[in-house]
Amino acid sequence: MSRADAVVLLLALAACEQKMRDQARLDPLEPAAFFADDMEARSLPPGVVPRGQARLDRHLWQGRTADNLFVATYPFTLTRADLARGEQRYAIHCTPCHGRLGAGDGVAVQRGYPAPLPFTTPRLQGAPVGHLFDVVTHGRATMPDYDHIDVHDRWRIVAWVQVLQLSQHAPAAVLGADDRMHLVEARR
Amino acid sequence: MAQLFRPSADRRVRLVLWGLPLGLTLAGVVGYYLASSDWSTGVGNPLAQPVPFSHDHHVGGLGLDCRYCHETVERAAFAGIPATETCMHCHAHLFADAPLLAAVRDSWAADRPIRWQRVHDLPDFVFFDHSIHVHAGVGCETCHGRVDRMPRIRQYADLSMKWCLECHRDPAPHLRPPEAVFVMGWQPDPHAPPVALDDAPHVSCSECHR
């Protein structure tokens, strides 16, 4: 075999190796033998705060005042877009248990998950938004925490919960003329 | 002087002359079909997973939104594989003793992630970004198929460059309105105007290769 033959043969073999397909870098969640636990995704060492990400705004991050009381206001001005986003995020994360209207009859509950209180429960109707935010963030009783949801989205979800509360408990007097007509027609 | 070649040498020369091009062509054809076969691309072949998770049950049956578990799909290149904690949201209470979920409970107790086997694995020289595609109106179903009917997740598209380019050259027929991106089994309204693109098709090499 001549040297040229050998080169051609080697090139042909090299083509089968696909080194570019799996390069010396890590994809998300790829096994990483470099670390003792074989995990690419590293968690932060305890106590570390990423630069510029200290959660100093208690109103935004904890829903509490400086006196540790639940706030009664939102940390930012809500727009119609925020409500739409809240509705969407509520549908993704909350409906499996709470149901579309917040009655506590979602698909998980229908299959035996302990039923949450309906949002129209008097105790929840009057709850400050800070309390609702706290429950979304840290969970409560059998509800797990949802602090992986973006903090602003958590407030928008709270806003949508308030929309659901209001929409099922609004006195007819506060409705606009059109809506009152619908109500009257629906009664007939 | 004696003859250098015997009469059979003619036959051998002919065999090589015909056989070489025929053999190379055959190898090329077989190679092409082999490389684009499901066996090679991984289409349709469910991998053995540590937990027999069923999208058919969770999406098709219960109606969970894709984003309950794949939560970074709208803001990152990687759609996200749910943490064990996400499974335990429900399974701390539902089917909490089911033998099928033993690996989930072990993972939760030992604080060790479940080792899911990756089904959709693009080569490292392709830089795919989920968030861009989702915001452009590419539905999950367009690339992943009817996930809500897959008791075991499997690859739907062959993920070849040819397949990518078929859509990149003329994306409009494949796009959906924003509210339909995460819907399975969506059918376009035959009377609706086609989705209008606000820029030219992205087909240069460096769109996907860097």
Structural summary, described in words:
The complex is a heterodimer of chains A (188) and B (210). Chain A has a domain at 60-174: Cytochrome Bc1 Complex, Chain D, domain 2 (Orthogonal Bundle). Chain A contains 9 helices and no strands. Chain A has helices spanning 3-15, 58-62, 80-93, 95-98, 107-110, 122-125, 129-138, 151-167, 177-187. Chain B has a domain at 72-79 and 120-187. In chain B, 39% of the residues lie in helices and 0% in strands. Chain B is built from 9 helices and no strands. Chain B has helices at 8-35, 38-41, 55-61, 66-69, 84-91, 102-110, 130-136, 140-144, 161-169. In chain B, helix 5 crosses helix 6. The interface between A and B is medium-sized, with 26 and 23 residues.
Shape of chain A: elongated
Low-confidence runs of at least 5 consecutive residues of chain A: none
CA distance, first residue to last residue of chain B:
66 Å
Q: Let me know the number of strands of chain A.
A: 0
Mean pLDDT of chain A: 89
Major sheet details of chain A: none
Question: Could you give a short account of the major beta sheet of chain B?
Answer: none
Specify the CATH homologous superfamily of the domain at 60-174 in chain A: Cytochrome c-like domain
> What class would the helix/strand composition of chain A place it in?
mainly alpha
At CATH level 2, the architecture of the domain at 60-174 in chain A is Orthogonal Bundle
Alpha carbon gyration radius of chain B: 25 Å
Following the backbone from N to C, one meets helices and strands of chain B in this order, namely HHHHHHHHH
What radius of gyration of chain A results from the CA coordinates? 27 Å
Helical content of chain B stands at 25-40%
CATH class of the domain at 60-174 in chain A: Mainly Alpha
Task: Estimate the global geometry of chain B from the Cα principal axes.
Answer: extended
Number of discrete helical segments of chain A = 9
Strand content of chain A: under 5%
The ordered string of helix (H) and strand (E) elements of chain A is HHHHHHHHH
